[in-house]
Amino acid sequence: MWTTTIKWSVVFFFALAQAQNLTTTPRVRVESGELAGGFVKTINGRQVYSFVGIPYASPPVHKHRFKEPQPVKPWVGVWNATIPGSDCIGLLHKDQISVIGQEDCLYLNVYTPKLPQNGLLNGGLMDVVVYIHGGAFQFGSGSQYGPEYFLDSEDMVLVFINYRLGPFGFASSGDDILPGNNGLKDQVAALKWIQRNIVSFGGNPGSVTIAGMSAGAASVNYHMVSPMSMGLFNKAIGMSGSAHCHWAYSENIVEKTKQLAEFLGCPTYYSKDTIKCLRSRPAVAIAESVKNFMPWRFNPFTVFGPSVEPTGADRFLPDKPENLPIQDVPAIFSVTQEDGLYPAAELITYDEVLVEMETKWSEIAPFLLDYNYTIADETRRQEIAQTVKSFYFGNNTISAATKDQIVQMLSDRMFKEPVVRFSKHLASKNTSPVYFYEFAYRGRDSLSNKYTKSGTSQGLGVAHGDDTMYIIQTKYGRPHEVIEDAKLIPIMVNVWSSFIKTGNPNINNTTSWLPVSKNPADPLKLVKITQNQTFEPMELPNLGNSAFWRSLPLSDFPIAVSPDSVTSHAEL
What we know:
Blueprint: H1 2-19, E1 27-30, E2 33-36, E3 38-41, E4 47-55, E5 78-80, E6 90-91, E7 99-100, E8 107-112, E9 126-132, E10 156-161, H2 166-170, H3 182-197, E11 203-213, H4 215-225, E12 235-239, H5 253-263, H6 271-280, H7 283-289, E13 331-336, H8 341-348, H9 351-359, H10 361-368, H11 381-393, H12 403-429, E14 434-439, H13 483-502, E15 524-529, E16 535-540, H14 546-551
Parallel strand pairs: 2-5, 9-10, 9-11, 11-12, 12-13, 13-14, 14-15
Antiparallel strand pairs: 1-2, 3-4, 4-8, 6-7, 8-10, 15-16
Helix pairs in contact: 8-12, 9-10, 10-11
């Protein structure tokens, strides 16, 4: 497959060369060979160089399936870097039934406004931003994002990466045969590739910011505590995700891997035999088997994700994140006002789903809220379900009339509480500042539009991922087409760019954005980005109803909070 890909790329390049003047084709030489790229234009017509589908590791296929990423083999000729590499194989996000992508997927895309001439770059090397895509570690790709907003005004190098997903990236046998976390090790391999090669694109390897949303943000958190990622970046940005999110850490990963093997008729007594057998099974069959782990409407949706590696010479995660030292770098973390609108939009706009949630709440809650494996006392599973329902719904039923409470519950459990928790933990450990914002601007487009019955989520709030589309060009939003929405793009881009350049996010000359307090007991200092596109400094003592969630007997909360500090939010 590797040889075929090289031949096809080289042939295509020469065909392309006949259609355009070779002198206008941007070329870059990296350690494995020469690349021929192209151009893209930003929303205001700025031309930037584009190099996509660049291999940063060898294809993880055949005997390399379930192995850590292997070095790229040099190629002969010129690599055609105008066609994105394949998405990594997994279930289609929209229906969780179809399988898309391929195993040969370890590629990255580089966009830069300048290229060195004769080894020199006018103005010096540029800051580098590496964006890690979300998708619950189960789906998504770097090619879903583009530079049309961020590079419209900024002189920086922007990189998007792919990494292995689902069981291909996160299955584990709990020993040296398959320690796990290969998807995160793919990200490390990409970051190391950037260190070695980004100068060729005008980027400064000494100024790298890693950023991401959802699982991308959780990945950012993991890199901050992983010994494998030390020295590979200098700043961090995480939107609506953290390593403390229940979906960002997989319990019972060894048992799940054995169950996956059983589904496919593989032996499970010796892990060596298990993995050898799994390497012989069709990739599509492995991807499809993930559906067997989702008891209720594709929940919990992160089946195979990051886990602690108990053994191995090179362990990405040798312990739980809260027990590991953290890289001392400036950071920004954020949530959106109705973060849980994804995935709530898939629930609250369907009457039959609401009826099912009301009538079968005790059975559904452990999967929807993903505490089935983290409850300290399994006999209290239904009790916790009722405690959560009482807190958010009081004596009301789950129905269209209480859809806001559903969104609030999922926002708090899935995103707000764990992102706040990691931010406070980070601020208490490091000397570098940690900044926080809540995004509360609702434009025409929203990620949640894709998952509602009607196709629009207007009136339901500001969803998960909605802030991202004002900084990075996404497939689900085009805010530049709406006059009022377009005003926010340069403002949000400036938040990122000023932070990347100085370590301090700049809003304007009148608003003071204070970092999170180093005392975890203090209220959370943050800035709220409002519907009026203003930045309002705030101090909130209990964002995400943290006290309530930590009062529950769940093992995914390392710090206990007294139930006495919890008050009901049934009136929400």
